[in-house]
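Case study 2.
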Amino acid sequence: MAPKPHARPATYAELERLPEHLVGELLGGELVVSPRPAPAHARAASILGAELTGPFDRKPGEPGGPGGWWLLDEPELHLQGDVVVPDLAGWRRARMPRLPKGPAFELAPDWACEVISPSTARFDRSRKLPIYAREQVAHVWLIDPLARTLEVFRLEAGRYVLLETFGEQAPERVHAEPFETYGLELGRLWLEPDPEDANRTG
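Prediction:
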């Protein structure tokens, strides 16, 4: 059977034309479109960013440290033709002393976090993780606010190794690479269960 002709790769201009309520990424020449985050997703990303920014997004040696990072919400990464938008990403200031002036980043981060949802989990795992590995992103976190889990990955020999999964039985504060010096209060990331949902299923 003759191979099917390749579809035309999507362009950045197509991504720019998307409505503001959609998030677009270019993954392997394909335009992948996701809706803006649901409340559980948005809360997990917002609280995590606030928790980590205080101690880490500052100059090394400043009070309240240890510092040494730039941490950003939804940065646009331009990585060898792929356009990727993680929920959170961090760069060690030793690698990137100053933030770039343009709207996008061409230097891959040292840490990326994806808050997965039923509509994005497949792309986050099968399409975005290989891009992060190719670009030598040393650590990736996958957070599932519905399952209430944090998966911590470290890049080793070009592949991600799952170091630990923190779930319902996690300690009150977890210490996860590359921010293991800080005790993250994981439970703060989750929405409280809706009593009406329990009544409907009980």
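The chain has a mean pLDDT of 90.
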